[in-house]
Amino acid sequence: MTATARFTGDANPYGGGDPYADYRTDDFPFTGLVDLADRRLGAGVIAANDEFFAERENLLKPEPAEFDPERFGHKGKVMDGWETRRRRGPGADAPHPADEDHDWALVRLGAPGVVRGIVVDTAHFRGNYPQAVSVEATCVPGYPSPEELLAPDVKWTTLVPRTAVGGHAANGFAVDAERRFTHLRLNQHPDGGTARLRVYGEVVPDPEWLAALGTFDLVALENGGTVEDASDRFYSPATNTIQPGRSRKMDDGWETRRRRDRGNDWIRYRLVEQALIGAVEIDTAYLKGNSAGWASLSVRDGGSGDWTEVLPRTRLQPDTNHRFVLPEAVRATHVRIDIFPDGGISRLRLFGTPTEEGAARLAARHRELGG
Q: For the residues 303-327, what does the mean pLDDT come to?
């Protein structure tokens, strides 16, 4: 079930210096996908059975967990994660927790979809991490309460069976469950602390909602758009360009390293489905001395073939949202933005409507995946 070699056992006690120096991790093949549990998409930890030492909301913070060796509170060491109290058995003659005892947290995904991989990150939990974890998922429409999710008639699918994990490590698991999910349940056996939870996969939007919107952003992460490839991800990921909302700081966009050749940088996107694009926004918010100088936009209808330029090379201004209405709507499944010569953009928005064929495929996939 794991994507790479598994980490188990304690990490060494913190000895000073960089707390990440002995952090155990690996390259997981699924981390280039969307984090369906990203707070920026609207994800949340809606309930937990215990959060005595550290609150459950820390699980979904987008930034890596921090560690301050001097920070203590009335309940003990303040940790940047979710940490439960130590479980005990029923009495002096049986002081240890039973095998089935465990803690849990319920997570509402920010964007429902198919889960391809999960990272249970125990960063800085060196001797107080869970002995094992398991992850379950379900698909429940609407906005169920914790009580409704925990009702006996709700069917949960195991994505990660009970598996031993390591302290101060990124514990990665590949997932093979071709279904659409809306909620996850993270279980810690029997107790302990987890710094972050990442749930990587593919967004499967609700076609009824998109149809009601009519015209919408065809490349937005929350609607099912994706980044397929990019020329450079040195300073920040290209996926930032299709996150919700406007960028709030420089590294919330996409910035490339400085080019010293005569080439240019680019990002290639796949739209939620085949669609007609009528308007474009290219935002350079918070990119001032490092914004792209010029940009052009090209489209393609299908996974291969020639690109057709629909927005010629156009001068961009720093820290500015640029809006362009295309002379006529263009049909596409893929879009490529080229920036010249380098630099960055913070957001790309492509407004339009799925074609009849694209809308039919969206609805069929939603049904096939149990939506």
A: 96
List, for residues 18-54, the tens digit of each pLDDT value.
999 999 999 999 999 999 999 999 999 999 999 989 9
Q: Enumerate the β-bridge partners of residue 108.
A: 44, 183
In sequence order, which residues have a C-beta less than 8 Å from that of residue 209 and are 6 or more positions away? none
Lookup: tokens for 290:
């490092």
Query: How many Cβ atoms from other residues are within 10 Å of residue 77's Cβ?
Result: 17
Residue whose C-alpha is closest to residue 192's, from 312, 320, 98, 104: 104
Alpha helices in the chain (DSSP H): 146-149, 207-213, 356-368
Degrees to nearest 5, angle at CA 107 with 102 and 111: 155
Which long-range contacts link 307-313 to residues 24+ away (Cβ below 8 Å)? 307/336, 310/277, 311/280, 313/338, 313/340
Q: What is the pLDDT of residues 249-296, one digit of tens each?
A: 898 999 999 999 999 999 999 999 999 999 999 999 999 999 999 999
Which among 215, 235, 226 has a CA at the least distance from the CA of 345?
235
Please name the residues in contact with 302: beta carbons below 8 A apart, sequence gap of 6 or more.
Answer: 333, 334
Judged on CB neighbours under 10 Å (0-12, 13-18, 19+), 120 is buried
- Look up residue 37 and give its two tokens: 């549990």
- What is the reported pTM? 0.92
Q: Which of 174, 136, 176 is nearest to 156 (CA)?
A: 136
Distances (CA, A) of 351 to 217, 218, 220, 325: 5, 6, 10, 10
CA angle 334, 338, 339 (to 5 degrees): 150
